[in-house]
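We emphasize that the prediction below concerns an isolated chain of 324 residues; any contacts that depend on oligomerization or on bound cofactors are therefore not represented. The input was used exactly as deposited, without trimming of termini.
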Amino acid sequence: MELLKKLAECWAPSGREDRIRTLIASEMEPYVTDVYADSMGNLICRKKGNGKRLMFAAHMDEIGFMITNIDDNGFLRFTNVGGISAHNCVNRGVVFENGTTGVISYEKSVKDLNLDKMYIDIGASDKAEAESKVSVGDMAGYSEGFALMGGRAASKSMDDRVGCYALIRAVQLAESCPNDLYAVFTVQEELGLRGAKTASFNVEPDLGVAIDVSMVGDVPESDHHSLSLGKGPGIKLKDASFIIHPKAREFMLKAAKAAEIPYQLEAAAYGGTDAGAIHLTGGGVPAGTISIPTRYIHSPREVVDIADVENTVKLVKQMIEMGI
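Result of the prediction step, given as a token string:
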């Protein structure tokens, strides 16, 4: 789990993915033919093969905060970068790229909590001191680190560093590769699948698979999600961004059975993954999504089951080793 810890704790909000891209590139370079970043910032790792182009996509970015104003007392107003719940960030710690830390709080008179009534306290006594540490436009991310909880793990940014982990390990462990393989680590997914849109136009895959987290229905008073922690990765059949292509479904189910792992089927009413962008590339691309069941998504402490993570590695490895 040391690699997952390094990935999850790496600072990289949407649009500021340099650190995580460097970390992933160092892990991938010994195992692939080419490693390069496109003009959008996606990391594209190609393992040349004689078969069809198979593309996996896991997004590198995390949700965060961008400073919009600094008031006279040194408090920072902010806007969201990706899907931020006001309730999830009350009194939570954040960290800026330069190491400045802060705490998010809110105006006590507010009745309906929203981001417009919240601020970041970085310990500054006035505007001048605050401006010596941060500027309008600077980004922050959650600062909570990685922790084991028995057979489960909690951290900020499991969405989607756990998908990045699964893709890295699968490529490292794969014993054969009949396809022309592209392992793509995308940027700005949290802002609307932006990186996947450009990466898939670059790669022009014959089949694409996103690896991402998805909500579960195994906690008290949860919505009616079909996934549960500990029962294996999900094969997503639908969300708001796509419906799985029959070819992708057949390929993924065949791989799950061949890998002899538990798996779950998922049909989601909302949400989206990089598959939503991949399948619309060019004249269309058969696409699917592997869902890693995750509790408390888009919070500072996202929880995954370690067995689900390792079974996702096995599933992706099996898909790499199979011809499309």
